[in-house]
Amino acid sequence: MEPWDTEPPAGETGVRNSKEPDTIVVTGSHIRGLDAPVGSNLITIDREEIDRQGYANARDLSEDILQNFGGGATGERQQNPASSQNVGYGTTINLRGLGNLATLVLINGRRVPAVGQDGGVADISFIPISALERVEVLPDGASAVYGSDAVAGVVNFILRKDYEGFEARARYGFATEASVQEYQFGQSGGQRWGSGSLFLSYEFYHRDRLPADDRPFTRTQDLRSQGGKDYRLIYGQPGNIINPLTSAVLFAIPPGQDGRNLTPGQLLGPEQTNFTDENQYIDMLPEQRRHSVFAYLRQELTPAIALFAEGRYGHRRFSSHSAPPWALLTVTPGNPYYVDANGNGAPVFVAYSFTKEHGPVEVSGASESYSGSSGLNIDMGSQWQTQAYVSYSRDKSRTIIDQIDYAALTTALIGSPSQPALNPFGSGTSNSPALISGLFRKDRIIIDADVLQANITSDGDVAQIWGNTLRAAFGIDYRDYHYETDNRFSESLNADLSREVLAIFGELFIPLVSPSNDIAGFRRLELSVSARHERHKDRSREPQEQSRDRQTSTDPRIGLVWEPFSGLRINGSYGTSFRSPSLNALTATASLSAIPVADPLSPSGQTRLLVVNGAERDLRNETADTWTIGAEIAPQQLPELRLKANYFSINFDNLVDRLPFPTLVLADPALSGLVVRNPSLDQVQSYCNLVDPQNWFISPGDCTAPGQVAAAYDWRLRNISEISVSGIDAQATYSADLEEAGILAVSLSATYLLDYEKQLSSTTPKRSFLDTPGNLVDLRARGTVSWQLKNGLLLSTDINYTDSYKDPVHDRKINSWTTIDLTIAYEISEKVTFGLLRNTSVRLNVNNIFENDPPFYENADQKIGFDPTNADATGRFISFNIVKRW
Length: 886
What we know:
mainly beta
């Protein structure tokens, strides 16, 4: 056996066909039969590994992909910019930390529509884990094969197709130190006949919510006991009277009274401030309930033509608690409960929380996903095959959120003959439920996205080169993507957008040298060349009619494999990739305003800043150069050992982004180059000409008279920023056949980052964000030891490691984090006499067996004691799995 020869896929107890109906096309290539894209590192998570880990859903699986960064949309609490738009609590992949939409997500090789308020979530949460055959992760740019979005790489979820028999699965899991429980049930069945096959699968999944109050590091916003500060909210119940300009507490309203006869002398000092600890009410994980169905049919129509069709449906309900609503109330003498705290009859400003009267905000809703595709595989003869298919996918989510009705609140602070006034000076029992109910409304956000795709791909043998077969693939691809939002809370966010894509592509596989014609120093030499040309045409129907039809990109890729001698393989690749500007940029209406901002160079401490908002008219594609080089060692003297290392580098530029928020730009000397100070009249008018006068929120004289503007700032979405990331993916595996004692397998995988730099614009320096909170950590590793005994018993443990990093804000080290998982499984042989137990497997999984809490990080933004982008809040989690096949 040659070092890289592998055994055929292991059969499943529902017997897998020994002859695949169609030769496999791996992720990253259009040519059948390749083990991996030439020159690239393809990571495969197979069914055996999925079962061993006991994953409940695609989110759990994605968290164990070392190249995936947890700073995207993960289905958790909306606690970072990437997840704040994820109102449907979907889950997606974020390879290399380049953003949700810089990773292309496929299901059975086909795109899924992106949802979320920014169209940035390719939701994988609907995928039934029991129907998964394998997951292929290509952490390399692949626009030459797939087009837009494949910048950091591609993740392809491949569902089962060729399976005969039935399989039932049940799973129950719970967190030992929290109130989270999981339930899962799946039923699958397949049938083969001489000319075709059918596979059906259904899965149900339910997970409870995880309250922040359940975990010690998220239980309170007062982090002083852990060495941090107190971040509790000064909006309390009872409330506090504050200075609205500085937010300083002037007086605390005393608890235990109803606010009807409160006098200024009874008010308390600021040292007795009333706080609200929001973490006592919020959820870190939402409650989820999902149903998923998948079906696949294959039927030969003639010996040369086979029809295939597949369909997938998922429905998911979610519910989560957010912090109780609060507001700054302007209480005038017209309010019957008014307290003249300042002794001058002026309005007082009460920082007020509706904690007791309303409770936490409920965010709930449902998401629905379905797709269907059908096509033909046609044997063209002479080793050529053509596949033609049409697919349609649609994802729709509906989210309902409680919101304060500020118009009703303003009215309630005065009162009317038909409605009593709001009493803001009580302790939470002074206002009637009917009054409080009238201050809130339920707003809904509907997001509807779909994609229609048609594709024709042909591949086959072209010619013989020195006894080796030159192979090629080419094709044409069409996509029609539609995205629509209906936001009752903010109608300005409504959108009706579409994008048409037409692409042509081609690929050559050139085996220059193979073991059959090797020469000294060249046992194997393979070259792959691929390219894709793609044209986009965008259109906005709402909020304004607009089109953009000049977006094109041509992306090449070259891959090389060189095997100088048996046991050593060197590979490399270079390519360009791109991502089209977000369709939402079409909805960013340009506006012009002037605001006072803090300015240390101004005698008054403030400067009037002219700000242009919106999006640049002609946004260009975001582009990337990606290259990799690596080596794999498989020594003949020790064939069970594999050592692999791959270096990667991605330079992602022309990113569509905004500069820092206008209120910050004059206060930070490092940002001074982004602002035009003391602009000339011509410069001012150049800013004014960017915006339709009907969207000027300034005096017209600011644009026509000199000296009216002290500084000007272009805050539009533009192609301005750049990210570069490089590092090494490494893996070592070893297995030993201990004969009667079974098989012992050991593996170690790691991703080590060398740099992760961002540049806001061409006028600002590059900054390293590596090893900082909310960003990538330089080292993540996972080690596995498993022992498969002959009697069907499996013992396995995984060690997960995240390296330490630095909190620059508080000048504090964030410690490394190590967790250990345990798996005990037993496979009951088909030879047992008791039929009910035959072909049954039982499994116990314990994640984080020693309940190792994440390292402390003073997370001032989220007011918790850890970094959720680089750690998990669940704690020790125990699950029991049983699988029965027949």
